Amino acid sequence: MVSTLRPLAFLGASILCAADDPPPANDSKPSTDAAADLRGGKSFLATRVYSEKDDEEILKVFAGLRVADVADGMDRAGLPYSGRMAAEIRPLWKDTQRFSHRFIGIAVTARYVPTQRPAAGPLPAGEFDRWEGSWYRELSSEPFIALIRKGTALVIEDSERADVGSIGSNNILSWKLRGMTGVVTSATARDTDEIIAEGVPLYFREPGRGIRPGRNEIESVNRPIVCGGVLVMPGDVIVADGDGVIVVPRARARDVASAARRILDGDKAARRKLYEKLGLPPDDSVK
Prior knowledge:
The structure is a single chain. The protein is of the alpha/beta class. It is globular, with a radius of gyration of 21 Å. The strands form 3 sheets. Strands 1, 2, 3, 4, 6, 8, 11 and 12 form an 8-stranded mixed sheet that branches. A two-stranded parallel ribbon has the order 5-7. Helix content is 29%, strand content 18%.
């Protein structure tokens, strides 16, 4: 595992400290300077970053596991009330032949927040286009793109009840092109017909129609977020299928996967026998 420093906050300055740095000796209370920095909107949080090799090894031990198996594995690892996203975070589409709507990935997180800035009034087309472009560039961009790689699960906390489609058929394909395996959001997406046709796994709350400008802003990237009512840390393991989404804390990932694998193997053997007795072909997850 590798600890590195990278800028995290976008609405305010960031001050980064190594995750492994020891606390100052005899530091019983924050210094005056530290308190002033906090009041000034600066952040002292640094995100631990895992290497691509670390991620690949974790994804191998989770390969083929279902949400149900992982939920049982979490029970056995002493985490019975952790990780299960709210049931309303559901797949946009399902494939019950090849199960291509399922995915397992390593979390890269982003957080969008409702804006306090006024929206543009009625504008001529050219002026509206300039205002819209400026908003996308300066306030509601996608700085997380640089972190997406093979096996990434992009997890987005967004304005849950705003009618805004931060995810659409264009940008979701650009993320997939970089190696993203699936997307989870606490909020909305638009162009849903096209996303279904594209076959990109998406788990969301409901459709949204509006654009980002005038509605939301990017607040942070690769910091802890809350999605579907659960904490998601950068580097956590995300498992998603027809049962919903579950988040596995990275520190417990191997223990959870080991227990989940035993459960899945036993379930496969039992179901295979039942398929044979009923004269039915087994589903792909049993073969």
